[in-house]
Every structure is written in C-alpha cells, then in structure tokens.
Amino acid sequence: MSDQTASAATPARKSLFKTLEVDTRLLGMIGALLLIWVVFHLWSDQRFLTPRNIFNLSIQTVSVAIMATGMVFVIVTRHIDLSVGALLATTTAVMAITQTQILPQMFGLEIGHPMIPWITIAAGILVGALIGAFQGYLIGYQMIPAFIVTLGGLLIWRNVAWHLTNGQTIGPLDQTYMLFGGINGTLGIFWSWVVGLIAAAAAAVGILMARRTKIGHGFIVKPVWAEAVVIAVVVAAILGFVAVLNSYAVPDRVIAREFERWGCAAVEGCTAGYGIPYSVLLLIAVAVVMTIIAQRTRLGRYIFATGGNPDAAELSGINTKLLTVKIFAMVGMLCALGGIVASARLGYHTNDIGTLDELRVIAAAVIGGTALAGGIGTIYGAIIGALIMQSLQSGMAMVGVDAPYQNIVVGLVLVLAVWIDIQYRKYSGAK
Amino acid sequence: MTPLVQMKDVSISFGGVKAVDHVSIDLYPGEVVGLLGHNGAGKSTLIKILSGAYKMDSGEIWVEGKKVDFQSPRDSRDHNIETIYQTLALADNLDAASNLFLGRELTTPFGFVDDGRQESETRKIMARLNPNFKKLKEPVSALSGGQRQSVAIARAVYFKAKILIMDEPTAALGVHETKMVADLIKELKAQGLGIFLISHDTREMMELCDRVSVMKNGQVVGTERVEDVTEDDILSMIILGKNPKKAA
C-alpha cells in the first residue's frame, strides 16, 4: 500500500494560482463571463457594461439561477428534472389565486392586507415542496426514471396551472409581493452599502476563521499575503457590485411619482440610485444556504456520495430513496421561489410563465460544471452558468441578433462549455 | 464462550434461485473464519446478509448472544459489524476523509460536518495503517488500488469493529500490499476481533484462518479447523462439493 513516487515529486515552486489556492475552474468560468461581457460591450458601442444593463442582467438571471442551484443536486445524484418550468407555472398559479381570490374572498382579507404576500409565499413554497416530494417519491421509492416522471410532470403541471386559472392571466398582484420582481423593490443607496459592507466583513471573517481552524488542526495554510490577496479580491468584488447597482440612477419621472420612497422631502433636487434589488438578495440568500447544504451538512455529503457511487452510499447506511424525495422537494421549493420572482417581475401570473425554463435551468447547471454522470457540481457554478446564458441572450438582443440565431448560439455554447469542461478534467487529472 | 456471531439456518432466494440455502456459521472472538467456494457459491450473498445489505428470507442472526434483526447496513454497523466490500464501496468523487466517515460524519456543535476534525482523524489512522498515504485532499478516484484499499480498511478499523467482514481484501493488490493486509489481519485478530474472510487463494486462507467453511450452490459443504485438513482436502470440497473427512 504505497505510492512514494507521487509524494516525492513535489514541485519546488508552486504557481501563483496554486499558492492562492483558488479554484481554477471558478476562475475559468469568471474569465469566460468577463470575455462575453467585454465582447458585447465593444460590439454594442459600450452599452453593455452600464449600471442599467448590469442591473437588468442581474434581475433577469435571478429566477433561473435560483432553480439552477436545486438542479445541481438533482444532476449530481444522476437524475434530471424536466418539470421545473411547469412546476414554476403551477406554483405561480397557486400564489396568484391565493393572493387575488382565496385570501380576499374566502378568508376576508382585504386586498392590500399586510399578511397576504407572506401567506401567499408560504402556500407557494408548500405546494412546490409537496409536488416535488411526490415526484421524488415516484423516482426514489417506485423506481420510475426521473426523466419519465418529470417529463410527465412537464405536461401535467403546465396544464394544471392552466386548469387552476381557467387559462386566464391573473393580476394585478399584491404590491408587497411585487417588490420581489426586481426594479419594483430595491434597497436604495444607503441600505445597499450597509448590506455590501456586512457581506464583505462576513466574507473576510469567514476566510480568516477557516484559516484559524486549519491552523488548529495543524494543517498547512497559505502564506499571509496570499490570504490577504484573496480577501481583497472578494471584498472589492462585493463592494464593486454594490457600487455599480447604486450608480444606476432612478429616472426623474419615477422619483416624481413617489419622492418619499427615495428618501426625499420634495421632488426638486431629488436624486436616488436603485441599489441592490430584493430579488438579487433572495438569490444570494438561496446561494449561501444551498452552498452550506452542499459543503457543510450531512445531507450535502450524502447527495454527493450518492452521485459518486450509489451502491457505496447505500452500503454506508444512507437512505438514498428518502434522499431523492428530499432533493426533489427542495427543487419544488426553489421553483416556487423562482416563481415569486418571475411573476412579481411581470406583475401577473400568465399561462406561459416559465416556459422552456427547464432547459435554461439544466443548461445553467451544466455550463456551470455540473456533470451529468453524477457526483460533481457546484452551486456557484450553476449561478455563473445562468449569468453566462442570460448575458449571451441579452447581449445578442442588444446588438440586434435575431431570436432564432440567438438560440443557435446558446445551443453551441452549451455543447462547447461541456466539451471544455471534459478537456479540463482530462488535463487536470480530476475526475 | 459466547460466539460473536451465529447465523442459524439462513436462507435467501432471488427469483427462485436459492443463493443461500439453510446455512449456519459462527464466529468467535479472536478468530478468523474463512469462506471459500466458487464464484456464485453464495459467499458474498451470505456476508451481505450479515452486513445488512440483504434481508434474509428465513433464519436467525445472533450477535454476542442476542438475536438481532438487520433492516439496513446501519443496523449492522450499530452492532459493531464492519464490512470491507470487494468493490470497496467508495464514493470516488469524495476525498479519503469523507469516505472514511460516510454515514457517520463528525459534526460541530451546530450540526455541520466537521471537515477539519475528520481530516485530522484520517491523518492519524492512515499514519498507522499506511504511512505513505499522503493524498488526503484528492478524490479517491485519484488513488492507487492499494491506497483505495487502505481507505476501505481504515473505515472498518477506525470505528472499532468487533466483527470484521473482508470480501476478497487482497484481490486487487500487489505482493507487498497483500502482506500488509495479512499482517493487519493478524494484528486485529490478536486484539480479539472476529473476522470473516473471503478469498479464492486457498494457501492464503490456510495461513490466516483458524477455521474454513466451504460453500457450493448456496450450501455449506463443511466447516473444518485448518490444522485438521490439507489444502487438497479443501480444494476437493470446493470442486466436488463433498467433505472428504465425512466420506471417509
């Protein structure tokens, strides 16, 4: 049981990235994203990388990105979920009916009652979880392939949504609920800075605490300067993002409509920036929670172990059937969260809400490095994947590429991304 | 002395095929019992019943004088039975520590997986079992056959098994590594563990085991102390399915 050759060949000098201990795949994905941004920026006469467009890009990405974080777990366990777009439609139908009909008519809550949005959201998440859990039960316990169950789900839930609403568009939705839509609900300059500073501080403290734990266990840590560089980059990225969103100025006519909301005593001389949208905050919260689940909890460990070797997981006493139910229930909840953002952005529930989202969500997860063979995938990867897809689509729309050509490009990028990932794994020796 | 394990009259069928047919075996502390037989004789199925992976159709299992009912591998582990499977049962995408603690993660007071402690515990046990083991951060798919084997063995040893099941532990190993496993078996035996060992290598079995049980077509042909039989006796039991001593 020996392998001396490998340990003997330690290189004398490590590369810069090795010293910094940053994930080269993460760097690669961010590099690809930046490249896409720069190309579109130049191509569109410098209209792409403006505060306004970055703001729009982020709110357009949120719904798909939220669902993609759940799709990572599904694909990691060697399943697939084709029903997310349809499930989103059913949850938004339920939430639209709850807030406009059930609560006002059956429970006598007046339209605009402060409890309406929260009861609605709870109902939507519950319905999403139940449907997801049921699909997970069919997959885990009844052994029906996920592809079939969710293909059936795609047809069923899309049309259950139609049935629930009689095929009608439902709205207008609750004012508070619509704050999750993006432009309707933002933190404003002051609170955006507060959130940004807290996030930056939390990131720095987190990195330092991880270092202390490592030292406590007697592990080798990277040099202090490397740690400082990583912290500086992370803090700069967070604060830079906040600065960009804050510099997207609220148009005068919007301020004129309700100047008090923007913190002004009068319309005259009032200027304001949008800052971080609530929907983006929701995505960040989802990303943090899902990353913690993936990396720090037993549930996450079991998800990845099952994906790597289902037999080994079962022999280790992991209940892989129940695990499947949990994963699909989680995806159902995330569909409801994605649905809140999507319907709040439109202001209505419509019949075609979330159409083709399943493909966007799967593509986002796969572009983000989730392997269909199972066992490999990251939450941040899926979110960057969603951002890459949305950037391509927005960028091409901006420079006037026709929609059919946009789809051709997105299709090519999907295949290319997976090919690059396979090559990367081959050369880096990772599997 | 109470036996560590008694399997009494155990049977299991898969679609009409009797994979294990009224088999009774036992194991005492500090003893190594070998299971021999052709492929498909029922050895692996029998030990998978003991490790909780299969549920028997009929029969009884007694562990340390108490009757047990294993519904899952977890139940078996709870009775200090550890299994090293032929396939090693490792999640290739995870590192050594995650595999070692799979299903029994060390957690922080907040209930999160304590990766730091898991890694340092893995370092300690590996230093004992395989001092050359250095690739703690890599997924186990990047390890050599011997290193993977030592992860699987570490998993059984770390959790202080009383009963150890080893299904062809040396099948994929080189000469040097095979010797390390043999030494480890002797060491664990001296500590009072009971070990079920499955192997095709009759000579190795004669050297390591106290008793051997030979299986054919799901049944036990015979159980003999190794000092009472020759290698030829065992081979004829495996091939003919008859116990020459009883015939004589």
Task: Note the topology.
The complex is a heterodimer of chains A (431) and B (248).
Chain A: H1 4-8, H2 16-20, H3 24-43, H4 51-76, H5 84-106, H6 116-140, H7 146-164, H8 188-216, H9 224-246, H10 252-257, H11 278-296, H12 298-308, H13 310-315, H14 320-346, H15 357-367, H16 379-398, H17 403-428
Chain B: E1 5-14, E2 17-27, E3 32-36, H1 43-50, E4 58-63, E5 66-68, H2 73-78, E6 81-84, H3 96-100, H4 115-129, H5 145-158, E7 163-167, H6 175-190, E8 194-198, H7 202-208, E9 211-216, E10 219-225, H8 231-240, H9 244-247
Parallel strand pairs in B: 3-8, 3-9, 6-7, 7-8
Antiparallel strand pairs in B: 1-2, 1-4, 4-5, 9-10
Helix pairs in contact in B: 4-5
Provide a descriptive summary of the structure in words.
The complex is a heterodimer of chains A (431) and B (248). Chain A is mainly α and 431 residues long. Chain A folds into two domains: 20-185 and 277-428, Orthogonal Bundle (ABC transporter involved in vitamin B12 uptake, BtuC); 186-276, no CATH class. Chain A has 17 helices and no strands. Chain A has helices at 4-8, 16-20, 24-43, 51-76, 84-106, 116-140, 146-164, 188-216, 224-246, 252-257, 278-296, 298-308, 310-315, 320-346, 357-367, 379-398, 403-428. The radius of gyration of chain A is 23 Å and the shape is globular. Mean pLDDT of chain A is 88; it is low at 1-12. Chain B is an alpha/beta fold and 248 residues long. Chain B has two domains: 9-80 and 161-248, 3-Layer(aba) Sandwich (Rossmann fold), CATH 3.40.50.300; 91-160, no CATH class. Helix content of chain B is 34%, strand content 25%. Chain B has nine helices and ten strands. In chain B, β7, α6 (175-190) and β8 form a beta-alpha-beta unit. In chain B, α4 packs across α5 (145-158). Chain B is globular, with a radius of gyration of 18 Å. The interface between A and B is large, with 39 and 51 residues.
